[in-house]
């Protein structure tokens, strides 16, 4: 990427291009596009881990066949994931390469490498957080490469861009009343089901994705209808979009997985740290 002044200038250009996006969803989508383009990455993703509820949402671009396996692997091996443990264990949450945290020979011997990174072509990883575990959530962009590590200049570019992305994410994430209309509070599960509705999934399909019964899904749907004062799926999705509860982009076919995480041990770790 050239000299450091050029890196700073490029990061500023990207930040200025993102400054006018109207919603969190638009910010995420445009940032994913820019990261993929500028870092020449074939795979970028956005992850939200809620340490309080023990849930996570992961969006991949593009969606690949091995992603379901990869998500299951992350779910099972999160406490072995060097990036997660790095951000959870100390206060520095600047962007970081996986290779800065674990030597390559050591990484290749792990289940994480074999069962998660290799299936999706993500052996090399660069993580750009927007929120740290101390906030109760770990929110981050992840950029992957299958056959080369990220350079020092690429890492510097992402670190220069990070403050702007954090500021934009925080501003756009502030509660919005969208005029005088009240915005109902949804549970994490209701919000997840709402996203699946926006993607066109049936109650049966949602139940399979969340590994729960159709009756449970329908109960959540009833709660959504009551909170949004709607009576069917279409009007529910439209009203949720107008209230800012889902992104315009959630109405597309973007793949997004909601998974459960076993955060019991991390809760104990947090108590010990306190």
Kindly describe this structure:
This protein has 274 residues and is of the alpha+beta class. It folds into 2 domains: 4-176, Transcription factor LuxR-like, autoinducer-binding domain (Beta-Lactamase, 2-Layer Sandwich), CATH 3.30.450; 188-243, Arc Repressor Mutant, subunit A, CATH 1.10.10.10. Helix content is 50%, strand content 14%. Strands 3-4-5-1-2-6 form a 6-stranded antiparallel sheet, with helices on both faces. The longest helix has 22 residues, at 152-173. The relative contact order is 0.16. Mean pLDDT is 81; it is low at 263-274.
**Percent helix among the residues?**
40-55%
In CATH, the homologous superfamily of the largest domain goes by the name Transcription factor LuxR-like, autoinducer-binding domain
Helix-strand pattern:
HHEEHHEHHEEHHHHHEH
Taken together, the total number of domains comes to: 2
Taking the alpha carbons of the first and last residues, their distance comes to 42 Å
The spatial strand order of the largest sheet comes to 3-4-5-1-2-6
State the CATH class of the largest domain.
Alpha Beta
The CATH topology annotation of the largest domain reads as Beta-Lactamase
Radius of gyration, taken over Cα atoms and rounded to an integer in Å: 19 Å
Topology of helices and strands:
Elements: H1 4-18, H2 24-38, E1 43-50, E2 55-61, H3 67-77, H4 82-89, E3 96-97, H5 104-107, H6 111-117, E4 124-131, E5 137-145, H7 152-173, H8 188-198, H9 203-210, H10 214-228, H11 233-243, E6 256-260, H12 264-273
Antiparallel strand pairs: 1-2, 1-5, 2-6, 3-4, 4-5
């Amino acid at each position: 990427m050239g000299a450091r002044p050029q890196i700073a200038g490029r990061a500023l250009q990207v930040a200025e291009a993102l400054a006018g996006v109207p919603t969190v969803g638009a910010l995420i989508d445009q940032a994913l596009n820019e990261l993929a383009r500028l870092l020449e990455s074939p795979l970028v993703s956005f992850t939200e881990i809620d340490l309080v509820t023990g849930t996570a949402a992961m969006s991949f671009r593009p969606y690949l066949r091995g992603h379901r396996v990869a998500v299951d692997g992350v779910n099972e091996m999160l406490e072995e994931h060097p990036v997660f443990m790095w951000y959870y264990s100390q206060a520095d949450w600047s962007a970081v390469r996986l290779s800065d945290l674990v030597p390559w020979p050591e990484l290749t011997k792990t289940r994480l490498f074999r069962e998660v990174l290799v299936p999706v072509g993500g052996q090399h990883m660069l993580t750009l957080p927007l929120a740290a575990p101390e906030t109760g959530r770990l929110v981050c962009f992840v950029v992957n490469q299958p056959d080369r590590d990220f350079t020092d200049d690429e890492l510097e570019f992402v670190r220069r861009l990070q403050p702007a992305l954090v500021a934009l994410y925080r501003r756009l994430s502030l509660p919005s009343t969208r005029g005088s209309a009240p915005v109902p509070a949804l549970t994490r599960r209701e919000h997840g089901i709402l996203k699946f509705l926006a993607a066109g999934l049936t109650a049966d399909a949602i139940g399979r994705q969340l590994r729960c019964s159709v009756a449970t899904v329908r109960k959540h749907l009833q709660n959504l209808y009551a909170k949004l004062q709607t009576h069917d799926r279409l009007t529910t999705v439209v009203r949720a979009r107008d209230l800012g509860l889902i992104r315009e982009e959630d109405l597309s076919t973007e793949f997004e997985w909601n998974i459960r995480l076993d955060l019991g041990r991390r809760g104990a770790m947090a108590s010990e740290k306190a």
